[in-house]
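User: Please write out a complete single-protein record containing the residue sequence and its fold in C-alpha cell form, without commentary.

AI:
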Amino acid sequence: MTSLLTRPSSPAVTSAPPHRLRFGVMGYGYWGPNLARNVASCEQAVLIGIADLSAARLVAARSSHPLSVLTTDHRELLQDPSLDAVIVATPPETHRDLVIEALESGKHVLVEKPLATSTRDAEEMVRVARACDRALMVDHTFLFTGAVKKMKQYFVAGEVGEVYYYDSTRINLGLFQHEANVIWDLAPHDISIMLYLLGQPVRKVSAIGASHVDTNVENIAYITLQFDTPLLAHFHVNWLAPAKVRRTIIGGSKKMLVYDDAELDDKLRVYDSGAQLAASREAMYRTFVEYRTGDVLIPKLEKGEALAVEMKHFVNVIRGLEAPISGGELGIEVVRVIEAAQRSLRNAGAAVEVEA
C-alpha cells in the first residue's frame, strides 16, 4: 500500500508537453532539494513527483514544488508508467537496491555520488542498466563546471603535455557522517575529476587517515595514487579544517594548471611553465633541469550552475543525443579507487593494487 502524502489538484502535472521528459526525485535530504530545483527549472524536463521517507521534508518540498506529487513511498513514483526518469539522492548504502529497482521499472536514472558502496554493487547496477537499455549516470557535479570543462579542453588538445603530478586538497569544517568516512564523502569529487581529465587507469593506492571525533570514522585522510607512468596523484581530504579549501594543481611538461573552486571569479589559472632535461657543454659528465617560465593565463569560463548543465546533459543522454560524461563506467572506476584506498587505510597505508 502506498502512503501518499499529498497529490496536487492541478492538471498541469499530469499533462507535460511532449518535448519535456517527466522526472521524479527520490530523496529530499541534503542534496535532493538542489537536484529537484534544477529539474524544475530545466526547459526540457518537468518534475512530476518527490519521494522521501520523512513527512517533514516533504512539507518543505511542498512550498518549492506545489504542483508535484509528494509521497513517502518511492514505489508510487516507479509505478507511474508515464515517468521517464528518476533521480536518486538517498544515502549511498541504499543506492544499489533503489537504482536497480528503478531501472527494472523502465526508468532512466541519475544517482548521487558515489554510485555504490562496493565495486561489486556498482558493476551489478551497470549490468542491469545495459540489460534494461536504460541510461545510468552518476551525479559527479564538478565535471560540469566551466573550469573542469576548460581543463578537459587543454588535455584533449595536448597542451598540458606529459603530466608529472596531480595534487588536490578538499578540506573544510564539514558535515560529519557516521556511516561513511571522509574518503567516501569527499574524495569521489576529486577522483572523478582526475579520472575524467587524465583518462588513465589507477594501478596502486595508498592511504592513511585518522579519527578525532568518532573512533570508527576517519575525518582526515591522505591518499596517493600510482599509474603506469611516473605520474603521482595526491589527495588531502579533511572534515576538521578551519578554512574551506578546494584547490587542485596539475603539473605538466608544457603547462601547469591551478584550479581553485573556492575562488568566486578566477577559478582557473594556466601557467605556461614546465621543466625538462637539458644537456650542457659538459653533457658527457652531467645533465641539469631547465626551467621554463612564461605567461599566466586566466581563461574565460562558461557560466551557469553545474547542476543545470548536468541536467540538460542527462536529458540529451536519455534521448541518445550525447554520450554520458559521468556514466556508470566512470562511477565504477571511482568506487574501485576508493575501495582500494579503504583497504590501504586498514593496512596502515600499505600500497594496494586497484582490482581490474
Observations:
- The first strand starts at residue 4 and ends at 6.
